[in-house]
Design a protein that fits this description.
about 190 residues, Arc Repressor Mutant, subunit A, Tetracycline Repressor, domain 2, two-stranded antiparallel ribbon, globular
Length: about 190
């Protein structure tokens, strides 16, 4: 990880990440400016570059943090259905992370922290798919995993973009996901 130097007002790295997440959640990653983030943190315009080098480095750090948070969340759930619920909950609780994590053109794909965090989250997702009946009855496990991920990711993305307000209505999105996954996947 980058240096965790502390400044007079606290941890600059964390302050810049928090400000970036606020901007991304409100206006998307295209609205990010290192100068604006420095202004928000009350430091010189060059200070954030000591932690992130540039905008791509900052967005890569956001994505790596998001994958770590996702892996942590997935690790607490057993089985595909509950992992899918955790995936959807993660997206709703961390929409800025979620958006950046899945926009590869914004990131340094070879960043060691990003690669390691992505692999931890992927490993947890693969473990959850192992209990699907489709994976056990000889279906290509990668295809079963892709189908399961597509359901969770698509549902989360549609929720975040407000495209499911009619079908979901006031119902709990976690319960709706459980019902949807039950229609399409049987856990063994």
């Amino acid at each position: 990880m980058d240096s965790q130097r502390t400044y007079h007002h606290g941890d600059l790295r964390r302050a810049v990440l928090a400000a970036a997440l606020d901007v991304i959640a409100a206006d998307g990653p295209g609205a990010l400016s290192m100068r604006d983030l420095a202004r928000r943190a009350g430091v010189s315009h060059a200070a954030p570059a000591h932690h992130f080098k540039d905008r791509t480095g900052l967005l890569t750090a956001v994505a790596a943090e998001g994958y770590e948070l996702l892996a942590e969340s997935l690790g607490e759930a057993a089985g595909f259905r509950e992992q899918g619920v955790r995936y959807v909950r993660f997206a709703l609780d961390h929409p800025a992370h979620f958006q950046v994590m899945f926009t590869p053109e914004l990131l340094r794909a070879d960043d060691a922290d990003l690669v390691a965090a992505r692999e931890r989250a992927s490993g947890r997702l693969r473990a959850g798919v192992g209990g699907l009946a489709a994976a056990e009855r000889g279906t290509d496990a990668r295809l079963a995993g892709t189908a399961a991920w597509s359901l969770a990711h698509g549902f989360a993305t549609l929720l975040l973009s407000h495209n499911l307000e009619g079908p979901v209505g006031g119902r709990d999105p976690e319960e709706v996901f459980r019902a949807l996954s039950g229609l399409l996947f049987r856990e063994s």
